[in-house]
Amino acid sequence: MAHVSAAERRPQLIKAAIDLMTREGVAAGSTRAIAAELGVAQATVHYIFGTKEGLYRAVMEKLTAELISQVEQATPEKGGFEETIGTLAAALWHTVHEQPASHQLLTELMMFALRTPTLAEARQSHYRDVTEVAARVVAEAAERTGQTLAQPAETIARYFLAGFDGLVMQHLSLPDEEAEQICLRALVSAVLALADGRLDPTAIPARTS
């Protein structure tokens, strides 16, 4: 059998882990099962990634990179600010329908990482990177169109992503296409209102205990 370098084997193992956990869930993703998925020795996984958490970290980085690529590809280079945000939301929602298993796996991994201290940095990096690219989209669209932002681009991006993540979870748990489309449009409207100042968070009283 021809020798395969660690550099070549690494992406193969990441793909095998994604394929396995997409089918069977994160709990099924032991190093033994992932090695068997690719047909290599379990020791190969440990040699390349060190631990199971090391492999999971690589999987999270891969899924994050793919999500960021989808955001960048979905962002129109022309058009108004409102059109940009609406197109971005619609395109991302399309990926939820086209790749529900990928979104479910990423959600499961984030929940797993909450209970795994060694994955804390990977979890934080995911949200930080996705927020940064979404904020860049907002800022660049505003600059291109002359839109004055009533809130920082990062705040607008975090608001959009919080709503979008909630819609994804609802779709995975209790899908309702008609209600989802209404909620998605409402989310876009709320994001636009936050951006132009029609939605003023300071005017909403905070509840204190």
UniProtKB/TrEMBL annotation:
<dbReference type="InterPro" id="IPR041583">
    <property type="entry name" value="TetR_C_31"/>
</dbReference>
<dbReference type="InterPro" id="IPR009057">
    <property type="entry name" value="Homeodomain-like_sf"/>
</dbReference>
<protein>
    <recommendedName>
        <fullName>HTH tetR-type domain-containing protein</fullName>
    </recommendedName>
</protein>
<dbReference type="InterPro" id="IPR001647">
    <property type="entry name" value="HTH_TetR"/>
</dbReference>
<dbReference type="Pfam" id="PF00440">
    <property type="entry name" value="TetR_N"/>
</dbReference>
<dbReference type="InterPro" id="IPR036271">
    <property type="entry name" value="Tet_transcr_reg_TetR-rel_C_sf"/>
</dbReference>
<feature type="domain" description="HTH tetR-type">
    <location>
        <begin position="7"/>
        <end position="67"/>
    </location>
</feature>
<keyword id="KW-0238">DNA-binding</keyword>
<feature type="DNA-binding region" description="H-T-H motif">
    <location>
        <begin position="30"/>
        <end position="49"/>
    </location>
</feature>
<dbReference type="Pfam" id="PF17940">
    <property type="entry name" value="TetR_C_31"/>
</dbReference>
<dbReference type="InterPro" id="IPR050109">
    <property type="entry name" value="HTH-type_TetR-like_transc_reg"/>
</dbReference>
